[in-house]
Amino acid sequence: MTEIAFPHPAAPARARRRLAPVLVLLAATLFALNGSVSKVALQSSGLSTLRWTELRSTGAFLGLAAWLAVRDPRSVRVARAEVATLVAYGIFGFAFVQWLYFVAIDRLPIGVALLFEFSGIVLIALWARFVRREPVRARLWPALALVLAGLAFVAQAWQGLALDGVGLAASLAAAGSLALFYLQGERLVGGRPPLAVVCLGLLFASVFWALVQPWWSFPAGALGRSADLPGAWLGSVPVWLLALASVLLGTIAPFALSISALQHLSATAVGVIATFEPVAAAIVAWLWLGESLDAAQLAGGVVVLAGILLAETSR
Predict the structure, then answer these.
(1) Is position 5 within any domain?
(2) Is 186 a member of any domain?
(3) HEC string of 153-218?
(4) Which of 15-19, 149-153, 206-210, 284-288 has the lowest mean pLDDT?
(5) Is residue 16 domain-resident?
(6) In degrees, to the nearest 5, what angle opens at C-alpha 251 toward C-alphas 200 and 21?
């Protein structure tokens, strides 16, 4: 008699864990592309970074909410005890990290802004050491030194800080928001599906922006303007098309992929893999927007990434 072999129950879980790093890489690539798309849109539309962030957050929330209303409406039900946590996550983990990033790339080369923002991953390890009282490896301290030294090269500190001060401050503040996004996201996906976590985060981010700048004052005419795409053969497209791409491919897709990966990987592991984003963003900005870093900044970027990887693996 032929014995029927049934798949081991753990096999799908192992397969999803193996797929998780791919999800993070794909998310990093989409975020990297969105940086250049958003920079072109900001420079062409005349929209402020606040308005672009509001448009991106609200559009992404509406798209996800429509999907979940049909597929899984129970996943977005919120208990009273969860409200404060989700409000904080939406504002500091979604609204601020997006807005601060846009402020930074509007004033700095995209690759430089992301190097400073991703230094926030070191904060995750420091939080684990001093707040959660988790044991960390001794490599955390040389990692911190590498990140600080590398950022000094990227900022060209010997020239009296050659970078735009507002852009630099925004990218450093974004680092803190990025750390919160990963740490809170790691905890929240334990209680509800990843898409629901993203949807609720974007809901409270959208409400926050609507209070800061009401929708009835939105300059809708800016969306009808033409954006000249860098590259002689690309021509121009309406700004609303760039906004749609930013919502679908630059927000919904990468956030959902990142949060999905947190179901199978720790915030540390996701942070390590996500360091691909500054590399990919710098390459896209160089090829498409003509942004380049000098030799000292490139060397500093390599040192920063090395320090981040060391810090991540210290947990």
Answers:
(1) no
(2) yes
(3) HHHCHHHCCCCCHHHHHHHHHHHHHHHHHHHHHHHHCCCCCHHHHHHHHHHHHHHHHHHHCCHHHC
(4) 15-19
(5) no
(6) 95
Residue spans of alpha helices (H) in the chain: 11-45, 49-71, 83-88, 96-107, 110-118, 120-130, 140-155, 165-188, 194-212, 239-247, 253-261, 267-274, 276-284, 295-312
Tell whether the model's pLDDT for residue 293 goes beyond 60.
yes
158: in domain: yes
Largest CA distance in the chain: 81
pLDDT the model gives residue 1:
44
Q: Which of 207, 239, 228, 205 is nearest to 47 (CA)?
A: 239
Segment 131-180, tens digit of pLDDT: 888 888 888 888 888 888 888 888 776 565 667 889 999 999 999 998 88
State the average pLDDT over residues 34-49: 94
**Percent of the chain at pLDDT exceeding 90:** 48
Span 15-37, mean pLDDT? 89
In the numeric block, which tokens belong to residue 34? 């969105």
How many domains does the chain divide into?
Answer: 1
Which of 70, 81, 315 lies closest to 191, judged by CA? 81
Measured in whole angstroms, the distance separating CA 98 from the mean position of its chain's CA atoms is 7
**pTM over 0.90, yes/no:** no
Query: 251-264: string of b/e by CB count within 10 Å (b at 16+)?
Result: bbbbbbbbbbbbbb
Among 308, 211, 288, smallest CA distance to 38 is for 288
Whole-number Å distance between alpha carbons of 240 and 263 = 34
Structural domain containing residue 283:
21-215+237-312
Averaged pLDDT of the chain: 87
Which of 29, 38, 79 has its CA nearest to residue 200?
Answer: 79
